[in-house]
Specification:
This protein is of the alpha+beta class. The protein has helices at 74-79, 82-87, 98-107, 120-123, 166-176, 208-211, 214-223, 241-245, and strands spanning 12-16, 19-21, 24-31, 34-45, 49-53, 69-73, 94-96, 132-139, 142-149, 154-156, 159-161, 190-196, 202-206, 230-234. It starts with 11 loop residues before the first strand and ends in a 10-residue tail after the last helix.
């Protein structure tokens, strides 16, 4: 919510787990494949892309990272004097939940709920929130994901998968300068998410270096808007340089 189309609407900034979020949007939860459910908040991460902000209630593991959302009313913050700003230990940031933030945005005029619809500005920012299949890497401690809706996925035996493979996507990112040209696609830990056409479930296969980090797995599920029930497993095809050859960063090979 960058631009304000009405002067009465305050301007907000948002933090997710302490990181500034450049953009948020409002959508409806999917019910039987249609975006007709209750309102939800989606946030855009510079690396992962769009993901849904939830109340953390579905996390079955207490060690998984939880969403911590904060907001600041920039319009009100700008009205404060320098002394008043310095006196605020949180610098104007207020912690909130997804439900509370929806109420705040409704009060501010960004969401119209009386007619059971969103305002014109918000409608332009919505999308049908469908789970996606995709491929991903964990490179330089950052999660890189590319996904596609199941309706656009390509068949592979009994599964549907992302149309492009790891080599092609990595090469495209190298040309764009998103990843180093001297790092091959199969060096960092990687994996993919597929849809099983037989039993209607999603399958996440990845390098054990990824699966051993529950927080990263949680981020993948959220980045691809996957349901709660996902089969997670290793695959011999996805083994990074460290898994294959060990960590040789401390070896002295001479000049």
């Amino acid at each position: 919510m960058h631009a304000m189309h009405e002067s009465k609407k305050p301007e907000f900034r948002f933090l997710l787990n302490g990181v500034v979020i450049p953009e948020i949007r409002i959508s409806r939860k999917c019910v039987n494949g249609e975006a007709t459910g209750s309102l939800q908040i989606e946030v855009r991460d510079e690396v992962i892309g769009w993901m849904t902000l939830d109340d953390n209630s579905h996390l079955c593991d207490k060690d998984l990272p939880r969403f911590e959302m904060s907001y600041r009313n920039e319009t009100e913050w700008a009205k404060l004097s320098v002394c008043e700003r310095h006196a605020d230990p949180d610098h104007g940031w207020r912690k909130t939940s997804d439900r509370k933030l929806l109420k705040i945005l409704e009060t501010a005029g960004y969401i119209e709920t009386k007619k059971d619809s969103m305002s014109t500005d918000d409608k332009r920012g919505t999308r049908v929130c469908k789970p996606r299949v995709g491929i991903f890497w964990l490179f330089d401690e950052k999660l890189l994901v590319e996904g596609t809706p199941v309706s656009e996925a390509e068949p592979y035996a009994n599964h549907l998968g992302h149309p492009a493979g790891h080599p092609a996507v990595w090469e495209r990112w190298q040309k764009l300068g998103s990843v180093p040209k001297d790092v091959p696609y199969d060096e960092p830990p990687r994996g993919r998410v597929m849809f099983n056409r037989i039993d209607g479930t999603y399958v996440l296969l990845a390098d054990k270096c990824i699966l051993n980090q529950k927080g990263i797995v949680s981020m993948i599920l959220r980045a691809l808007d996957l349901p709660k029930t996902v089969t997670v497993d290793t695959d011999g095809h996805y083994r990074c340089h460290v898994c294959l050859y060990g960590d040789d960063t401390d070896e002295d090979w001479g000049e």
